Amino acid sequence: MSSSVARITPPEEVLPAESLFLLIVDGDRWVRDLCKETAGSMGFKVYTSDHARTALQQMESQPVDVVLLDVHQPTPDGMELVAKFKELHPQTEVIMLSGHASVDSVVAAMKNGACDFLRKPFKTEELKALLTRAAGRLRNSLEHRISREHLQNNPGYKGMLGTSPEMQKLYRIITKVATGRHPVLIQGETGTGKETVARAIHADSPYHDRPFVVIDCAAPAPGQLENELFGPMKTTTLARAKDGGFALASGGTLFLDEIGEMPLDVQARLFRALQEREFYPQGSTKAVSLDIRIVAASSRDLEMAVQQGTFRRDLFFRLNVVNLRLPALRERKEDIRLLAEYFLERIGQARQVQYSLSGEAMRLLQLYEWPGNVRELENCLERATAMSPDPVLQSADFPPHIRTAVMRTSIPDRQARILPLAELEKQAILEALQQLNGDKLMTARALGIGKTTLYRKLKEYGITHWAGAPVSGQIAAK
Hints:
By secondary structure, this protein is an alpha/beta fold. The chain has three domains: 126 residues, Response regulator (Rossmann fold); 150 residues, P-loop containing nucleotide triphosphate hydrolases (Rossmann fold); 88 residues, Orthogonal Bundle (Helicase, Ruva Protein, domain 3). It has a five-stranded parallel beta sheet with strand order 2-1-3-4-5, with helices on both faces. A five-stranded parallel beta sheet has the order 9-10-13-8-14, with helices on one face. The radius of gyration is 29 Å and the shape is elongated.
């Protein structure tokens, strides 16, 4: 986006509880530390609390999959707390802890919604076994929820495409975190689909019937971003009246794209607004209350930006309640065929042409590293279909830099990959001639150069034969 204007295989081996969230509620610090260390080694993201009141606050603002709860709490007691937890998050697995467990207390805990009971003192193996069982039940539940989205066998999830382990893991996390109100920070390279993920979160959030507003934080004009967020009442996105377009102050999702580019002074105002849940629009003495969800995205490493002093530490921690890291396309190459076929079908429907890829063209796409990720793949296919005279795309229909990059990486000798530019250019011309059966006009078109330039290059490199046969036409006569 170029302005700040708001606009509406076998899977890899993973830890048994990776991407699940655990809350430990116990007044004994040694119990909390032991549980935290054990659960952390299993892959849980762990929160701790020593009091029921703070535990309830955490449950209201943060995603929680499993709760380890000491039955003996001041007010409310453990049994009542179980019922409150299950009311807030019915899918949460609650494991009760007690040093004086009796049959009656176990039965009472189960009736209130607990799934297991663990007597103190306990061994780490016992705790691991209970947490593993809880994680297994949650996995099955999440997979069932996701499968309901795929009644027609769609190979993706809410606008995202991919069946790779990395994408399946991402779908599970989105399914979990979407239903909360806590901030979400999405990090990933340019072109990985951060806004698509943000929209998927909004679609299942408590604010799904409220506005989803996008703000580009890389605003080129000084003061433009601050005015968009905190300007006068009639213009600011956060406080604009309903009849003026938005009503984020009364609830909605604000997607802050490329938040790493936000100036430090605006970061300070944003942090105060989120901390106090209100702000004063420019020229107003009346505070506007905020009931919004923030989903922020960045292609920069914000932790590094914090260390370098270009991003506020307090704002980073405020936004980083849940952190989603989107995989680069080169990390899920098994999805390239699916993505390419999807884009070609969409392009073909608009042009009433049924496009497809030759086997060699598909291999080319799967070997390329795609630094621009999914967006680059889509743009590349758009260009190829515009350039190709045939609905079956060949490798020659794709930009020369892609073919050259693939050719370099396919050379086994690392030193041989370092070639003079002239040699790389010569190889690209030879490859294009081979793909196009020596047709110079089509070769020039595929390489993005003029026919006269091609003739000059052919003469310069002494290319008079291709694959043992003369190149069509007389070079010297041109």
